Amino acid sequence: MDDFIFRNPTKIVFGRGTESKVGAEAAVYAKKLLLHFGGGSIRKSGLHARVTASLKAAGVEWVELGGVKPNPRLSLVREGIETCRREKIGLILAVGGGSAIDSAKAIAVGVPYAGDVWDFYTGKAEPREALPVGTVLTIPAAGSEASSGSVVTKEEGLLKRAFNSEHAYPRFSILNPELCFTLPKEQVANGITDIMAHLLERYFTNSRPVEFTDRLIEATLRTVIDVAPRVLAQMKDYEAWSELMWAGTVAHNNLLNTGREGDWASHDIEHELSGIYDVAHGAGLAVVIPAWMKYVLKHDLTRFVQLAVRVWGVDQAFYSPERTAREGIARLEGFWASIGQALRLPGIGIGPDRIEEMAGKGCEGGRKLGHFVPLARADMVAVLKLAL
Amino acid sequence: MDDFIFRNPTKIVFGRGTESKVGAEAAVYAKKLLLHFGGGSIRKSGLHARVTASLKAAGVEWVELGGVKPNPRLSLVREGIETCRREKIGLILAVGGGSAIDSAKAIAVGVPYAGDVWDFYTGKAEPREALPVGTVLTIPAAGSEASSGSVVTKEEGLLKRAFNSEHAYPRFSILNPELCFTLPKEQVANGITDIMAHLLERYFTNSRPVEFTDRLIEATLRTVIDVAPRVLAQMKDYEAWSELMWAGTVAHNNLLNTGREGDWASHDIEHELSGIYDVAHGAGLAVVIPAWMKYVLKHDLTRFVQLAVRVWGVDQAFYSPERTAREGIARLEGFWASIGQALRLPGIGIGPDRIEEMAGKGCEGGRKLGHFVPLARADMVAVLKLAL
Question: What is the total count of domains within chain B?
Answer without folding.
Answer: 2
